[in-house]
Write a structure and sequence with these properties.
Blueprint: E1 7-8, H1 26-37, E2 40-43, E3 49-52, H2 55-62, E4 68-69, H3 94-103, H4 108-132, H5 137-142, H6 145-154, H7 158-176, H8 180-204, H9 212-218, H10 223-254, H11 256-264, H12 269-279, E5 285-290, E6 294-296, E7 299-301, E8 306-310, H13 311-314, H14 339-342, E9 374-375, H15 390-393, H16 409-431, E10 432-433
Parallel strand pairs: 1-7, 3-8
Antiparallel strand pairs: 2-3, 4-5, 5-8, 6-7, 9-10
Helix pairs in contact: 4-6, 6-7, 6-10, 7-8, 7-10, 7-16, 8-10, 10-16
Bound molecules: protoporphyrin IX containing FE (HEM).
Length: 439
């Protein structure tokens, strides 16, 4: 039987409203429903865009750079264009020139070399929490720890990474609000910092084997693109980890049995991190643009039409992940995941399980010094149902000013990291405490 002709977007076709109000769980519920009813959905918002909700469709697009470009817009909605930033804004083969250099700094060996310094920072931060007796782990840890790590990784002073983190927060927040002027202002500041870092590396004659910026400079790549690349790394290196760590802590605070298990069997922590990445995908999604007419799920997507890839939905797709809405430690199929296809997320968890030698005095295993994370029983409990819905699973802990939820899913595709910032800050600030007492 001949398959029916693929159907282009009909005038006014609108399967979901990205501007609709959300609760903590509503977008997951909506995505689940759309995966079954309308996995290739169209929305009229933002001038019209497609959204893919199934794992196989998302992965199919990510694996086909010839048909789907990332250079037109990598988020929905398209926002102020503040310059091309490799590698995210490029397609292969141009993209590969940058990834080849960057990937050298994310090998297992490099991560292992970084690990003692990271453990040192973690131990110090945790010691501070423990000494305080009680702390809001959002700002005090999730938001702070990645700045320490990035300072080590990128060879920057901590004060500078803390400032970058703050500017990034404001920048991402402006993206969420689609505030073009603020986006450009934040981006200019970040470009200025990137230019200073590059100038310093040139002046110091830093060894390209030792430093990522120096390696980019030594690779014979165009100056403006190296600038864009460093500028991009400054933001990406801290936003997702802050979001992700905050989410894990929030979930752990709700699941004391899991805390106890991971404390007793720390070699299971990497598997838990993997599962957290699946369940609480820190970016709601990115986008691509069709380079030619293409058929997905019986729908005709026209050349030039933007396509939001909803990672959050793909990573819970029951076709791939049984009980996809649940946290399941040691899933048999941890590997098929959309985000790894292109992004090959550089840092996913501890480089290796903790060994006994790490255990001296608990200094290298700071989690061992926690009595536990718990929700603050005196904090207000919002009327939002389950606390680990999308507003908690996309916390960008970098926002400074709590504000009411933005009712804009598509913006969150973009920046889940950013937008969610204040959300989780508000939430963790009132309900999750950490480092309650040392043992
Ligand atoms: C929890 C940790 C992280 C997660 C979940 C994460 C996730 C992602 C995702 C989903 C993308 C977009 C892929 C796309 O749609 O094209 C991305 C891109 C990127 N991220 Fe991360 N990221 C994390 C941490 C980091 C860190 C620590 C760095 C750098 C120090 C980093 C650097 C990058 C870069 C350079 C890109 C662009 C990659 C490319 O276009 O090839 N990320 N990340």
């Amino acid at each position: 039987m001949t398959p029916p002709d693929p159907i282009p977007a009909r005038p006014g076709e609108h399967h979901f409203d990205p501007l609709a109000e959300e609760s903590f769980t509503s977008s997951h519920e909506l995505y689940k429903e759309l995966r079954g009813r309308c996995p290739v959905a169209h929305s009229e918002t933002y001038g019209g865009f497609w959204a893919l909700f199934r794992h196989r469709d998302v992965v199919g697009v990510l694996q086909d750079a010839e048909t789907f470009t990332t250079s037109v817009q990598n988020v929905v909605p398209k926002f102020a264009f503040t310059g091309r930033r490799p590698p995210l804004h490029l397609d292969p083969p141009e993209h590969t020139d940058y990834r080849r250099v960057i990937n050298r700094f994310f090998t297992k060996g490099r991560m292992a070399a970084l690990e003692p310094a990271v453990r040192g920072h973690v131990a110090r931060l945790v010691a501070g929490l423990v000494a305080a007796g009680e702390a809001d782990v959002g700002p005090a840890y999730a938001q702070t720890m990645p700045a320490h790590v990035f300072a080590e990784f990128f060879h920057l002073p901590l004060e500078l990474t803390a400032r970058i983190e703050q500017i990034s927060a404001e920048y991402v927040r402006a993206i969420q609000l689609v505030d073009d002027d603020e986006v450009k202002r934040g981006s200019r500041l970040l470009y200025g910092i990137a230019a200073d870092v590059i100038a310093a590396r040139r002046a110091e004659g830093t060894d390209p084997d030792e430093d990522l910026t120096a390696a980019l400079l030594a690779a014979g790549l165009p100056d403006d693109m190296v600038l864009g690349c460093v500028r991009q790394l400054l933001v990406t290196g801290m936003v997702a980890p802050s979001v992700f760590i905050g989410t894990m802590l929030a979930h752990l605070a709700e699941h004391e049995d899991l805390q106890a298990l991971l404390r007793a069997e720390p070699d299971r922590i990497p598997a838990a991190v993997e599962e957290y990445l699946r369940l609480f995908t820190p970016y709601r999604g990115m986008s691509r643009t069709a380079r030619r007419d293409v058929v997905i799920g019986g729908r005709l997507i026209r050349e030039g039409e933007p396509i939001a890839l909803v990672y959050t939905s793909a990573n819970r797709d029951e076709e791939i992940f049984e009980n996809g809405e649940e946290f399941v430690l040691d899933r048999p199929n941890r590997v098929p995941r959309s985000r790894s296809v292109r992004a090959s997320t550089p840092v996913r968890g501890p480089a290796r399980p903790h060994d006994a030698a790490d255990d001296a005095g608990g200094a290298a295993r700071p989690h061992a010094r926690f009595r536990g994370l718990r929700r603050d029983p005196h904090g207000p409990v919002g009327g939002v149902g389950h606390p680990l819905g999308p507003d908690a699973v996309h916390p960008g802990l970098n926002a400074r000013v709590p504000r009411p939820p933005l009712s804009c899913i598509a913006r969150r595709y973009v920046v889940s990291a950013a937008r969610a910032a204040e959300k989780v800050k508000a939430w963790t600030g009132s309900r999750v405490v950490g480092g309650v007492r040392s043992r």
